[in-house]
Amino acid sequence: MSKGRGLDTSQASRSQPPRRPADLADLTPEVLAKTAGRIADRAVAMGLTHWFWGEGVVLQGMMRLAGEGSGAPELIRAVHPFVTEFVDGHLRDGIELGHVNNLAPGAVCADLYGATGERRYADACERMLDWLRHDDAVTRAPGGAIEHWPGGVWADTVYMGGTFLIHYGLHAGRPELIEEAGEQILAHAAILQHPETGLYAHGSHEGRTIWNFWGRANAWTALASVEYLEAGGALSQPVREVLGRQLLTLAAHQPAYGIWDVLVDGQPENRGILETSAAAGIAAAMFRAAALGIEPERLRRSAWRALAGVHAYVADDGTLTRTSAGTVLQLLPFGYSVIRDDMIQPWGQGLALQAYAAALRETT
Fold first, then answer.
1. Is 320 helix (H, G, I), strand (E, B) or coil?
2. Is the Cβ–Cβ distance between 107 and 166 less than 8 Å?
3. Are the C-beta atoms of residues 166 and 227 closer than 8 Å to each other?
């Protein structure tokens, strides 16, 4: 225990040294594509079964890798068969609803509707939208932010619910849904984005923001923001501003080996405890933000550095190692230090797919 400050740095002092990142020259399109294929196949081999957020992150990563952002029918042939089999199976058996995390696979359901025009996908999206709008389980904070749990606003929500609204809005020709996602991004930013640094806290508890700048929270918010900007929403300028501030600060905090600590601001209890899923998600957001003209030179450089760091942690079987466990809001910084190298995590696989997909678009 650190004297006089109440900090427990015992785990940070025992953290493993970072691996040497890949050489950028070695990250050719062929290497990127083969690595992404291994990551996707490993995710399928996990045996994912639930209509929930981890599965949704994997599905969205696979769709992004296939280039299925626009719903063009010819692209659906490139999607991993697991995607359509998973969604179709759940539509037959009945999709699970009860929490905003259940909306994450809905973005892919919307993509399949855009790609095929089959009404059953739209019907499922309508059911999810009706749940979001009318179910008593969906509570809101003052200002309109959807609460992740009653009394708590979490960064996760803008990705899990926001990407569903954006994708369905695009494919159903309903711009008001895209705007709803933009409003959620800004409502969450008002609570969770630090006014000085632009970094996002993970969440709030009973109206009080807990200023732990968790890496994956910053990945969720950044990815949701680029999805909204790519959709061309009416709130693009304020969303662009909050995203730019966030990503530039993340770039400034990035270590030379590319991967941020589990708390991205160098908090002492977690210093040196690296977490790869956040780095992958942030890299994907940086690549895509740069393509939108947001500090392109600075963000592309940081994105490639992050991807090179992540690449060193992809095992031969396609598992992204050093991914943190599913993490609820922690009141103390040390609570974010749990890294699960003993088991694969679906959100690690899905965010890695996002990163490799974004890098492939940079090289082709």
1. strand
2. yes
3. yes
Which pLDDT tens digit goes with each residue over 207-249?
999 999 999 999 999 999 999 999 999 999 999 999 999 999 9
Letter string b/e over residues 145-169, b meaning 16 or more CB atoms within 10 A of that residue's CB:
bbbbbeebbbbbbbbbbbbbbbbbb
User: Tokens 């509570």 label which residue?
Assistant: 139
The tens digit of pLDDT for each residue in 178-189 reads: 999 999 999 999
* Contacts with 98 (C-beta within 8 Å, 6 or more apart), sequence order: 137
**pLDDT tens-digit map of 158-175:** 999 999 999 999 999 999
The pTM of this model reads: 0.95
CB 145 within 8 A of CB 191: yes
Place of tokens 């969205």: 60
- E strand or H helix at 210: strand 208-210
Residue 146 has phi, psi (to 5 degrees) of -65, 130
